[in-house]
Amino acid sequence: MNRNVQNNFKVSITLILVFISFFSMGQTHAEKEIESVFDNLVLAYGNSKAAPKLTYFKKESIKTTPALYTTSPQPTIMVDVKFYELCRSFGKDSLNALAVVLSHELAHYYNDHTFCADFAFAVRKNNAELAQKLKTVSKSDKISRETQADYHGFFYAAIAGYNPFDCYDKTIDAIYKLYQLPESNPGYPSKAERKQMAIAVKQKTSELYVAFKKSIQLKEEKKYEEAIKLLEEINTYFPSRENYNNLGVIKTLSALDLKVLTLEEHKYPKRFLYPLELDNSSRLNQNGTRGAEADQLKMIQLLKAAQKDFEKAISLDPNYNKAYVNLACVFDLLDNPEAAIGKIKELSKEQQNTNEAKRILAIAYYHADNENKAAEIWKEIE
What we know:
Elements: H1 3-45, E1 53-56, E2 67-70, E3 76-79, H2 81-88, H3 94-110, H4 128-134, H5 139-159, H6 168-178, H7 191-220, H8 224-237, H9 241-256, H10 263-267, H11 281-284, H12 293-316, H13 321-333, H14 337-345, H15 349-352, H16 355-367, H17 371-381
Parallel strand pairs: 1-3
Antiparallel strand pairs: 2-3
């Protein structure tokens, strides 16, 4: 082999390696982006169920759908990396489009939908077992499950910080074109039906998302009753640990506005600042009418309602540490500091050492007549 041929061969090999390296980097970047959106959505769902496994279709396989949820051998969401490239063509809506599909599949998983697991209703052609199972599900049931998945998919995508509302139609059109899907499949919602279903879903979930943001604003404005009404309506559609926790926090804050301050709280306001309060200065400025029997009865009712909300949040996710701290606050306010201490002790050692946990522990120890232990903790965090 002469020198020129050798040089040309080396150049060719180098170019091939550069191309392979570049392609691999592109794949890695795509997977990282997909995983980032996936993780954000899982966090938004806030469900106690462990997240399903996220994998990708094999390169050599024939892709007929952008994403697929399967339950066997373990709950898994499979994504076609080619779909990510399609999403990139949407510019500023690229991650929104990706979130639409991933959130939809996650909704199937979190709502225990076993059979409606294929976003494009196309995999059944290549999976005889799945096709046979799907035959047992009526079209009306499929539409019902798809509608539910769209409701939850839209809402939690929005909660995760994406805007799924404006890009849905073009995402559907692009998917059907890319995967060469028929406009209708016997026994399945057609493309036109899916778009029609989405109109009502988008309108309602958009309204509920606006209501969710409004409830947070009302909380900051201390308009607690209005905020509670909005969150309770949202919870009828999308019950989640965060929604129950937010309800509990707002009810507790409302109860705190009715609480009569002790001499110690007047003297050391920062020490008796409950972790779910941003500032207790407003309580220091309460008027002389506070403490009436009606106020105290209402305070207890609010606290007991908040207790149920925090307990529900924990039942949805036993690892939701924030709800444990908030529930401990409620126990202390209900004159049960021992229960408050016990609730914090249920947390891991690491979580017990957070400032929030230590703050309620100090307050609870003080109210449990263990002033030395309370002073020791206050010294650590002040």
